Amino acid sequence: MQLKRMLSFRIGRRRRRGEEENAEKNAPLAHESKAAETQPLHKPTWRCFSYEEIRKATNGFRQDNLVGRGGFAEVYKGVLEDGQAIAVKRLKSASSEEQKEKDFLTELGTVGHVRHPNVSSLLGCCIDRDLHLVFEFFSRGSVSSNLHDESSPPMAWKLRYGVALGTARGLHYLHKECPRRIIHRDIKASNILLTTNFEPQISDFGLAKWLPSEWTHRAVAPIEGTFGCLAPEYFMHGIVHDKTDVFAFGVFLLEIISGRKPVDGSHKSLISWAKPYLNDGTMKILVDARLGDQYDHEQLRKLTFAASLCIKATPACRPSMTEVLGIIEGNMTMQDEWKMPKEDEEEEEFWGFDDLDEDEDDECDTPSLLSSSSSTGSSQ
């Protein structure tokens, strides 16, 4: 099989690469982030599983073990002989067998070198009888399942803030610190899994794209993703860059804050509902009503301010994930004016961090500025 030969070649080539070559290949990225200086392109730690191993682990891919199904894959939970809980992603038929193999190798190559506490790591793969990717299984499920489970108490604010912070760190890593810059393209609550300690894990790299450091963007087709989370430039023109993920992360923040889904039963988007309150700087009405007053007001200010910037219609008006992380962590101050392109100054009303009011619908007359030691994000 051509895929087996290709995969064997890739694995052999990866194993032959020494640390010196990896460090040399990573050297050009050293100036982009401090982490890049200390995290060379490591040899892969994942391995090839036999079909018998994953078949036995998943009880023969029984329906009882099915935990997720999408347009291109099914995910089964299982347990290896050593007790390791795993999630096996089995690719479904694409437009052709060749395209299916291409998608498999693309995702394998993308997620295979990722190393971060807030990004799901690949354990291995299996190419016997079908195409499978093996990941660690997280029994707490996704942020979406925890946030929208009406049979359980509402997700506590402390957990929500921790999830927002951890996800921001993971996404910042993919954009700025990963040896090869990755655009996820499908950031949403159902793709953020939770460990037993509620540490978020960015998962499902089926739509992810590499973005070489010298590229500002790339055009993709067909346009795929989740309605309600897609940036305007992406669903209208197929343009993908880091700000595509920033937009989706803004929707994710609004979902965490409000407990509402990106699109509700009446097909109204979360952004359409939230924007009037974001524009006049009110926050209290945005908070999940189930929480009552059980939330940290200062943390709410940070998340709401970050969300308002992330969902700007124009990519140049959105911050980078470095800046978003700075806002959430509290390392940035709003001292000056967030400068938007002239064509958007009248289109989008902007409120400042200090203008937020939980009790009154105050008008924002003067926008504030986001300043920090890092440079303002662009559409790069």
TrEMBL record:
The keyword Nucleotide-binding applies. One of its GO terms (molecular function) is protein serine/threonine kinase activity. Residues 368-380 have a biased composition (Low complexity). Gene3D superfamilies: Phosphorylase Kinase, domain 1 (3.30.200.20), Transferase(Phosphotransferase) domain 1 (1.10.510.10). Residues 343-365 have a biased composition (Acidic residues). ATP binds at residue 89. Residues 14-41, 340-380 are annotated as: Disordered. It comes from the Eukaryota. Residues 61-334 form the Protein kinase domain. Belongs to the protein kinase superfamily. This is Protein kinase domain-containing protein. It comes from Canna indica.
